[in-house]
C-alpha cells in the first residue's frame, strides 16, 4: 500500500469510526451518570453481552431469515424497476397512466400494507419479499428514468446521424449513461430495505429479527431489541457498501470524490 493510498483509506475510514465512537461514548455516559433503568436504556456493554449470548441460538438464525427476505425483495424490486423504467421510457403514452400508479404504491402505509399481504400470502417469506420490493423499486425506477432522459441531446443526435436504431441508442447510450443515477436510487433503496422486511415480520411471522423483537419487548429485554437494531444497522451498512462497490465496478468512468 502506497502512502497516498493509505491516506485515502484513512480519510474514508477514520471519520465514520470517530463518529461511532463518539455516539458510543455518549450512550455509555447517559447510562452511567443518569438514573435511567436498564430496561429503558441498557448500556452498550449490556447490548454487546446480549448480542454475544443470543447470537448462535436466536440472533444468527433470525438474521439469516431477515437477510434472505431483504435480498430477495431487493432483487425483485430492482428487476421490476428496470422493466417499468424501460416500458415507461419506450412507450411514452403509458407514462401518464403509469406514473400515478407508481406514486400510489408509495402512499399506502406499511402498517396497513403488511397485514393485508400477510392475509393474502400467508406467514412465510412471500409477504415480506413483496413489502421490501414495493418500498425499494420506486427510487430505482425514478432515478433510472431520470438518467435515461437526461442524456445530452447532442449525443442522441449524433447516434441518429449514424442511422442508429432506437434500441441501439437505448442499450448503448441511454442505459449506460443512466447507471450512475440508477445506483444513486439503489443506494437510497438499500437503506430501508432491511427495515421494510422487519415491518413485514411485525405483521405476522414465526421467525426473523422483527418476530424476535416483538417477543422481546413484552419481556422488557431492551438489550436484545437493541442488539437486533445493531444487526439491522450493520446489515444496512454492508448493503450500502456493496452497492457502492458495484457502482465503482459498473461505472469506472465516473469521477470519484476526494
TrEMBL record:
Residues 59-243 form the ABC transmembrane type-1 domain. This is ABC transporter permease. One of its GO terms (biological process) is transmembrane transport. It is a multi-pass membrane protein. The keyword Cell membrane applies. Belongs to the binding-protein-dependent transport system permease family. Pfam families: BPD_transp_1. GO terms for cellular component: plasma membrane.
